[in-house]
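JOB MANIFEST
job_type = single_chain_structure
chain_count = 1
residues = 476
[input]
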Amino acid sequence: TVDSAPMIGALDADAVMTPKLTLSYRQAVAPQETLLSPAGGRITGHEFHRTSVTPAYGSQAAWLVEGNPVGFSTPTLHASYLHTHWAGHPAVAQRFANAVHVATPPDSSTQTRAPKPRDLDFEARKLAPQSAGLSKGAPQPAAGLRHHGDAEASLGLVDFAVNVYDGERPDWLSKALASSLDTVHLYPEARTAEAAVAKRHGRAANEVLATAGAAEAFGLIARMRDWKRPVVVHPQFTEPDVALVAAGHSVEHVILDEGTGFQLDPDAVPTDADVVFVGNPTNPTSVLHSTDTLRALAKPGRILVVDEAFMDSVPAEKYSVAAARLPGLIVIRSLTKLWAIPGVRAGYALAESALVTELRDQQTPWSVSTTAAAAMVACSSDGAIAEASSRAATIARHRAILVDGLTALGFKPIGPASAPFVLVKVGAGVHQSLREAGYAARRADTFPGLGPEWIRIAVRRPDVTRKLLTTLAALS
């Protein structure tokens, strides 16, 4: 509506004319791929209006202005009070024209589809058409949020894009996975795995929920309640966004600042946020937030979700809250990364028993496979914990070689890095140049708050890392 008068209904928002006139020039950044811009695209626009909009932005914002999301964006709609002149940004006009050209009219006998990247002339992924199962105006995850490192690791490229340990899988884990096949004729049960995980973290068995990887846990959390103000701290892993939007929620982002090294200030999170997602250590920044910082986010009436998917790669699991019994705290863990078993889909959630019950009520029966449950049992043993500690120390040594090498080349990787990857600003175009030279790094412009000048580089063996550094030096 505008001043309570109904409009066409393209936006689930209300606008009201106010006495205050806003007049300014703004620099704006696209937080993800949009109808008008690739992720990280920058424009200059001006504001000239007297209108207040509620909400100020949608599940996907049109722009980030001074780090704050504004406006509304879907694959076929862009709405913002930031005015952009086509003459100043002809590429924006061309993208819009291309999208119109390839779109199918709504009354066509053929299926309506959103424009695809090849039509809009930007790299990488499809923008999915709106699902017929969702009502008009239902939020849709931005295409960029569904992009992950495995999409970068093309055959023939040296893989620095996927954050899994590049050492050999231990024999005891291989044997456990193989032995699990002896009971796949039975329906899987995860209670034994949950008991093993509980012992590993010093918790009760009813405080553990086995999940099909961390991604399933995010979906369960998204569906467990009718969230009023869900907040995701960015840049970070984007599956919480995808899960929340798929569950029908409008997501708010708190964008951390490069100038502070992407450190989290708890006061930046809205006090009335009823669920907050934060990674620790954070993907892709490799930043490790202190226990005090995380505890400051815990508030009555709020669920705090801490994604510790990479915590087992941190020596001594410094700042882990996996054993903490804070009211409203849910900790997400994954076995994928350290043990290099992404195909098994093994993870778990740790929380007070009442929250675990809420999560379990949302879970599809038998979602955790027999093989995944066997992996959880094996990786929770005393021997596995000792080997995990050794692997974490190895990662730290190998990461230091990568960080020192990048620094010697004049780059400034975000630090101190604490995860099996490093975030570094190398300049726009370097990501593609590395691919052409035979190396796959993770593009970072699909993480809200980052642009095309950033890449994420996984920690690898020193000999492989030095070859990458030599290539980067030649490109600089």
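[summary]
The domain at 184-253+263-276+290-311+318-381 is CATH 3.40.640.10 (Aspartate Aminotransferase; domain 2).
The longest helix spans residues 382-408.
exit_status = 0
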